[in-house]
Design brief:
Number of helices: 11
Structural class: mainly alpha
Helix content: over 70%
Mean pLDDT: 85
Radius of gyration: 24 Å
Number of strands: 0
């Protein structure tokens, strides 16, 4: 595994080295050795630009090593050359790093790029749409927020906390329009999701109290 990670991390330079060795072999050994080295160089450089070092991100992400994650992401010089699913993951990770550093403007730009490309899975698409929707609602852009949150719900959110967040957001949107029936329906869906996150549970309790006062 360490050797494989070494190859991924340094394959660009190994590819250049293979080209140099191929040129030397062409004059000192034979043409077939040179062709083999050129072929290895081609594979190394092609995979470097089309796939990138995304595989190296798993460990630092699990360890919460944001500095290392940023270092690896910044080593991708030409993200537009990445194949589509990996490019989408790249922009999602960039957005997550931006949000960790509270750079919400950049996070939104990167999320939009990821959403436009489509995620590796429908659940990833849904999660990205939910993030986009929540950011739009935070800046009081309810029209765009509703569009993205609805897209997230349609896409199938990956966990109960995300589902509850989406339903709560829709409840608040309809509550703002004074459409009480729709607001209550979405609120009931948020409760039925049975989220575990303390923050989401707290929001549900606060919304429950608010709706009770309105009824009362």
């Amino acid at each position: 595994m360490k050797f494989y990670n070494f190859i991924i991390r340094y394959r660009f330079w190994l590819g250049l080295l293979a080209i140099v060795l191929g040129i030397v072999a062409n004059f000192t050994v034979d043409i077939w050795t040179a062709v083999l080295l050129y072929f290895l160089a081609f594979i190394a450089l092609l995979s470097h630009f089309l796939i990138g070092p995304i595989r190296l991100l798993q460990k630092p992400i699990e360890e919460g090593n944001i500095e290392e994650v940023n270092k690896i992401l910044n080593s991708i010089w030409f993200p537009n050359l990445l194949i589509k699913p990996i490019r989408s993951s790249y922009y999602t990770l960039k957005a997550n790093m931006d949000m960790a550093q509270q750079n919400f403007s950049s996070a939104e730009k990167n999320l939009k790029k990821s959403v436009s490309l489509g995620g590796v899975t429908s659940e990833m698409d849904a999660a990205n749409n939910l993030q986009m929707g929540m950011m739009a609602l935070q800046r009081n852009d309810f029209k765009e927020g509703e569009k993205y949150v609805k897209a997230a719900i349609r896409g199938g959110l990956p966990d109960k906390d995300s589902q509850a967040m989406a339903y709560l957001a829709m409840s608040q949107i309809y509550l703002r329009r004074r459409e009480m029936k729709a607001a209550k329906d979405f609120f009931n869906k948020a409760k039925a999701a049975k989220p575990k996150s303390e923050e989401v549970v707290k929001q549900i309790k606060e919304m429950d109290k608010y709706l009770s006062r309105m009824q009362g």
